[in-house]
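Annotated sample (chain length 212).
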Amino acid sequence: MEIKSKSQKEESKRGSLYEIAKSNKIAFLRNKQPQPEPFFFSWVVENKLAGMGFPCFLEQFITLKDKYGVGLVVSCIEEYMCPPLDMFEKTNLQSILINWADRSTISIKQMIELTDQMDEVIQKNEAVVVHCFGGKGRTGTALACYLIAKLGFGGKEAIELVREKRNGSIETESQEKFIIDFYNKLNPDKKQEYLVNENQNFLKIKLRPIKK
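Output written by the structure step:
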């Protein structure tokens, strides 16, 4: 299934520029041979929910399935950069594509639908892994929203845990604010207010309950 961001206007075929994106990723590697271990893979919820960087090799998909017990790969990336479906079919992995531009957000409605789909797989005792290109901004945003929607985390707590498990995650102020807005949408009686600190450093957010 594909969930497309309304802000995305590209009509490119899925994976049409995957090989170019793959080459750009590999260009930064010392060892450019196929590597079985997924880039920047780590668990946020042990054996259930993980994040990773852009997958370049079929061997990485095999590792996800056989070593980590992954059943679903969520691609939070532009449609034309997404790994083609045949890579998932060859390894019997489910795929969800969210056509999501770098350093941006999607709609709250889309995120609610996504976290529901992720949870369906996790409830079947299969793990879910989320990726974008670097595995930090869009990936971290989706992971934090799952913690809020399905595990009862507050907005601040979700951001802190994802960053603890995956250094550098959630890269922009708009992504932080989206996570708080997502929490508030699901918890209207326990709203949190997003405050940028005095130095405008979005990596050090302040949260407080909104007084009624």
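Annotation: The longest strand covers residues 70-77.
Annotation: The chain has a mean pLDDT of 90.
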